[in-house]
Each structure stands twice: as C-alpha cells, then as structure tokens.
Automatic annotation (TrEMBL):
Gene3D superfamilies found in the cross-reference section: Tetratricopeptide repeat domain
Entry-linked InterPro entries: TPR-like_helical_dom_sf, TPR_rpt
PROSITE patterns, per database record: PROKAR_LIPOPROTEIN (PS51257), TPR (PS50005)
Any single Pfam family the record assigns to this protein: TPR_6
Entry keyword annotation includes Cytoplasm: no
Domain of life: Bacteria
Alphabetical UniProt keywords: TPR repeat
Designated name of the protein: Flp pilus assembly protein TadD
Per-repeat ranges for TPR: 171-204
Matches recorded under SUPFAM superfamilies: TPR-like
C-alpha cells in the first residue's frame, strides 16, 4: 500500500530537482548575457579610451582564447592601427575580410592599414574590390589618397570633394587636399583649403603650418589672421622664414628668423642656429 506514496514522493522530488535545474540554466543564461554585455563595453572602452598598447595586449589575449571570434580580431586590428603597427594590423584585417563574416567596411579598414604601411598598390587593389554602391566617407577619403599617390589630380580632386561633403568634420580631408594642391604647385588653392580646414579645427597646428607654407610659396610673408599662441606664432614665423630663404628672399628670411627668436617665450634653438648659419655664409 505504501508503493503509490513512495512513487508520488519520488515524482515530487524529481519535479523539484527538475525545477531547480531549470532555474540554474536560467541563471547561467542570464549571467552569460551579462558577461557578453560587460565584454562588449570593455571592448568599446579599449578601442576608444584605452592606451593603444594595452588595447593591443587585451585583444591579442582575447583572440588567443577565441581565435574564431571575428569581432575580437576586428578589435585587435583597430588597436594595432591606433598603436601605430599598420603592417600587423593589415595582416589581421586580411584574416577578417577573408572570413565569412568580412564586410565592405572591413575591407575599407584593411585598405587604410595598407596605406599606413605604405603598401599603396595593394591598398588600391582592395579598394577596387569594394562595390561602387558602398559609398562612405572613409572609402572616398582613401580613394582620394590613392589617386593622389598616382598623381591623378582630377580624380583625386573629385574624391576629395565627395569625401568633404560626406562628413560634418572635414578638417582632416581638407588639410590633405590642401597639401596635395601645395605639392602640385597650386599654392593659392592650397591656402584656401587650409583656411577652410581651420574653420572646423582652429587649434590644429599642422594645418596652420601648412597654411603658412602655402602663403610663403606665394611670397606672402605676413602671418595670416588665425588663432595662435605665442609659441605657435614664433614657430610659424620660423616656418615662414625658411620659406622666404627657399624662395631666395634671404634678407626677409633673416628678419623673420629674428622675429621668431624675439617672439618665442623660451630660447628658440632651431631659429638661432638658422640665423647664425645665414650670418655665417
């Protein structure tokens, strides 16, 4: 007579254990979801605010543990670019684009790494493999740079113009475009582009220096009306002085060197050496 009771107890116990098992599985899934979110946040932090070399170490370790995770390989490639290891980054990007998860955007990033590694021919080949329907700022920026490297000026100008219109922050593209114009001998066109770039990033010293070079190439030996610190003013006067000497206007160059020395808040060793060299011969 007790058998039905025992069976009932056993069944109840089994049901209880099964219920516990389900709860444990639910908890495991919940924790796994939290871990994925935490990892995703950590990945984003490493790619944006983490120190470049630390990010490389983090993603390298992550890829070693999960070599099939393409998202981690993307993180490693991006970190290697940030850490200024473009050749290594290109190797990793190659693995990404040749996987079944590779995208057109990955191929653009691959081309970018190749350009940084000075492998222009391979970069062009990768850009040519991207369908024309993939129209992004980054893609056109790289297309412009490749055309520039081949001295295809009309093509480069077209791509620079398209890229400029596809971003709200075109300062970098405008600076590159201006430098391209300067190397072609179009100093006036370069000056306009550098000026425009500074309206977006007025603190970018490289663009200020390029602007002064463009003006010097036109024998405009006064500094443009732009935002600058006292130290920057001295350094720009120095750049202008060298441009004047290069143009054969040595007397003007000497005067600008002295202005740079007098303006600099500290001792301006490079300008002093240049002035003394001119005085000596």
């Amino acid at each position: 007579m007790r058998h039905p009771v025992l069976i009932a107890l056993c069944l109840t116990g089994a049901a209880t254990l099964a219920g516990c098992g389900n709860r444990d599985a639910d908890v495991d899934r919940a924790l796994e979801a939290v871990n994925v979110i935490d990892e995703s946040n950590l990945n984003d932090i490493m790619l944006t605010v983490g120190a470049p070399e630390e990010a490389v170490a983090y993603f390298r370790g992550a890829v070693e543990k999960a070599p099939d995770r393409i998202d981690l390989k993307r993180g490693l490639a991006k970190s290697l670019v940030r850490a200024k290891h473009p050749a290594e980054a290109a190797t990793v990007w190659s693995q990404v684009v040749n996987s079944h998860e590779g995208t057109n955007e990955d191929r653009v990033a691959y081309a970018d790494a190749l350009i940084r590694a000075n492998d222009w021919q391979k970069a062009e080949a990768e850009l040519n493999r991207i369908p024309p329907t993939h129209e992004t700022f980054q893609r056109y920026r790289l297309e412009a740079m490749v055309a520039d490297s081949k001295k295809q000026w009309k093509k480069a100008d077209s791509f620079y113009e398209i890229a400029t219109g596809m971003t709200t922050q075109p300062a970098g593209v405008l600076n590159n475009w201006g430098f391209s114009k300067l190397t072609r001998g179009d100093a006036s066109g370069a000056e306009k582009l550098f000026q425009e770039a500074l309206t977006y990033e007025p603190n970018q010293f490289t663009t200020k220096n390029n602007l002064v070079l463009a003006r010097g190439a036109q024998r405009k030996y006064d500094l443009p009306v732009i935002q600058m610190t006292q130290k920057e003013r001295a350094e720009l006067l120095y750049t202008l002085a060298l441009a004047a000497v290069k143009q054969g206007d040595v007397t003007v160059g000497k005067g600008l060197l002295q202005d740079a020395i007098d303006t600099h808040p500290q001792h301006f060793e490079a300008a002093v050496r240049s002035r003394d060299a001119l005085d000596a011969g």
